[in-house]
Structure formats: C-alpha cells, structure tokens
Amino acid sequence: MARYVVLIGFFIMIGGFAYMLNLTNTGEYNPRDIPTEFIGRTAPPINVPDLYNESDIVKTADMKGKVWLFNVWGTWCPECWREHGYLMKLNRAGIPIVGLNWRDKRSEAKAMVSKMGNPFLKIGYDPDSSVAIEWGVYGAPETFLINAQGMIVEKHAGGVTPAVWEKKFKKHFTQ
Amino acid sequence: MKNLKALILILCALFVFSQAQARFETHDFATPKMEEDYNVLVQELRCLVCQNQNLADSNAELAQDMRLLVFKMLNEGKSKDEIVDFMVVRYGDFVMYRPPVKTTTFLLWTGPLLFFVVAALLVFLHLRKQKVEPQVVNEQQQKKAHSLLDD
User: Which domain holds residue B88?
Assistant: First the structure.
C-alpha cells in the first residue's frame, strides 16, 4: 500500500514538472513578459521634443478624447523594423499612433523613418530613457493603448503583428 | 612550470579585469552618505533587460540610464525609499532584486525552511524506526561465539 502511495506521488510530481515545463516561456510564465504596473492607470506625460521639430513638445494631454497607441521603438531594435510595416498599415487605416524614439541618434532615427515611412502623428525623442522609465518600459518595441479618458488599458511587449492587433488592440477601436 | 606561470598570470589579469568591470561609470558624490546610498540602491535594483543582474552588475543601456537616474534623484535630495518606490511604481516589485515578504511571496521566502523541516522530520522518523533493540546474548551463544573466534 505504502509503495503505491510513493509511486503515485512520484508520478504526480513528474506530471506537475512536465506541466510547468510546458508552460515556461508562455503567458505569465514568460520571464521576458514582466507584468505591467500600468493597466488602469492614467498615462504618464511624455513631455520631450519631437524628433523633427525640437520646439514642439510631444504631450500625452494633446491626445485627450482619442483612443491611441503609444509605440516605443529604436533603430537598434530588429523587432521594431519588423513591426514598422504593420504600423504603416494601421496608420493608413486611421489608427492614431504616437511614437517614442528611444536611445537613438536623431540622424539615425530620421534615416529609418525616411526609409521605411512614418506611421506616427508625432515622435517623441528620448535619448536618455527619461520617458521610457516614466512609462515602465524595459525593452523595445513596446506598445500601449490609451483610451479617450487618458487611461492605459492595454500593453504589449514585442512587435505588433496582425495576431496581436486582433487579440489586444482592435476591440478598443471598434466602439 | 612555464605553463603554470602563464596560467597564474592569466588568472591575475582576469582578476584585475573583473575589478575594472565592477563599476562602469564614476560619479562625484556630494557626501559619503550619498555614495553609500547609491551603492546600496544599484545593488538592490534589478536590471530589467538582463534579469539575473542588478543595476551594479549590468551594462545594458537601460541599466546605465537607471543608474544615472538614481544618481540624479539622490542629488535632488530624494531618500533611498523614495527612489525604490519610484521604481516599484513603474516596474513593480520585480525591480527589487530581493523580493519583499508579502502573502504572494510567503512561500518563496519560507519554502527552503519548510523543505528542511519536512526533510529533517522524515529522517528523524526513519531513524527512529530503524533503531534496533539490543539483543540479549545468553551463555550458550557466548560460548559458541568464543569457540568460533578461537579457531
């Protein structure tokens, strides 16, 4: 009898181990996907100059009343190149996107935009992470969705793909 | 022998190199207390890019900027707790290299002790079960033993 208990216990352990192994790197067990603190919070200010126009300060408040995306990118981030085409598509569909160029040289950031197109209404220029840290960003690309009340309702770490758009963002724009 | 000397030299070089790597940039601190606080903070805060390193050990760009921000905030007269709170508000408890003791992290902190207690209990029970009663040897058996040993 005792032997069976030990044996069953052993199999339960193996089963549990296999189950957790299977979950690793997905959903909440993905060490790369740090749970964001920002869902349901008022979007922080941006308050840095525009990439193209230094006298123009990019502000969160300017977007009040709109549902919009805030996309953090850098020329040094391959995933940002990959998602860029899709951001262009979203822009053509009328989705307002504010960009944040993170830790780049102005010239390099401009070069990428002129080569690949500009899907952004404005692009904040953040060479020293001040805005990135303010928004709790830890990697690029990261995309936030802010509602008409100025509240962050969705965040995605990683490139925006059609699948991510369908799952996380689309529903907030069809109201 | 020659090889050994070379090896020692390489090891020394590595050691010196690792020492040089220990701090990435130098700051001019207004007070020794500020420097002390800075060193504690960069040890306690996690680099979010290379997650098994703290800010002191990481040279990721974000870690560099976070270190600079810690320095700036100390200069503005912010306390250690205020700076940690600032980071936790933005990055969650995860930014703390040592997770705080809360209901959700209770098992994390007590787990090893729990394992130890359970293991110790099992070992104790097992040993107690194994304890053998001392056997009483009668005269006849003793004689037999002697005759066997004498042979």
Answer: 28-100
